[in-house]
Amino acid sequence: MNHLPSLYISHGSPMTALQPGLTGTRLAELAAALPRPRAIVVASAHYLARSPLVGGAGQPSTVHDFGGFPQELYELQYPAPGDPGLAARIANRLDQAGLPAQVDPQRGLDHGIWVPLRLMYPKADIPVVPLSIQPMLGPAHQYALGQALAGLGGEGVLLIGSGSITHNLHDFRAGYDADHEAPYVRPFIEWVEQRLAQGDTAALLDYRRQAPFAERAHPTDEHLLPLFVAHGAAGEGARAQRLDAGVDLGFLAMDIYRFDAAA
Question: Where is each Extradiol ring-cleavage dioxygenase class III enzyme subunit B domain found (predicted)?
Fold first, then answer.
């Protein structure tokens, strides 16, 4: 079986489901380039808990965890099956790594999961297992979470961290658009790309002190934290490849990262 990489996806606004643009093109291209997964595990910026939770529903619901959008968006469904057995195995692996985890048998698929997966695997015929992040515990904890799941790619399981490489919704009414980009976006995404290319994990884990405009790009951590899960899951010496999917609304950078394990 071919070894799957781990991925970090910037899922953007829920409207990406209706207006996929360049993000939709990049995600479809990426899915076409990968071996078909037997299952998908997604650590979402919208699944937050104090300790690790793993979604174990046999048929997870499509969760419309947003308000004020067109009715058409609320009618979209992503009826992918779950995989309770895989969820239990993941929880066990986390336990063994000193990260006590529980299975949540009711957890559905939030928009950080189903929006990008609709663009990658529109048939919704691959089992999906949600994984929570712990925003109060910071980047190093999420990196350890990913490390505990290293090797899943060799079993045909695609691990995805879903967030946003820049995410400051306070800028929604700041007048930014396709022709007037927020000044912090490029310096921040370039710094992340350079640190990943150099394998400078220590700097990345300390991004809030070291990255330019870190607090402007991420007033809170949760949308960048899935990057560390995906990075950790790829193992030591993994190669990071950035896929540029543009900048939505002038301030939401839509970068995608593919992490391939070292040969």
Answer: 2-236
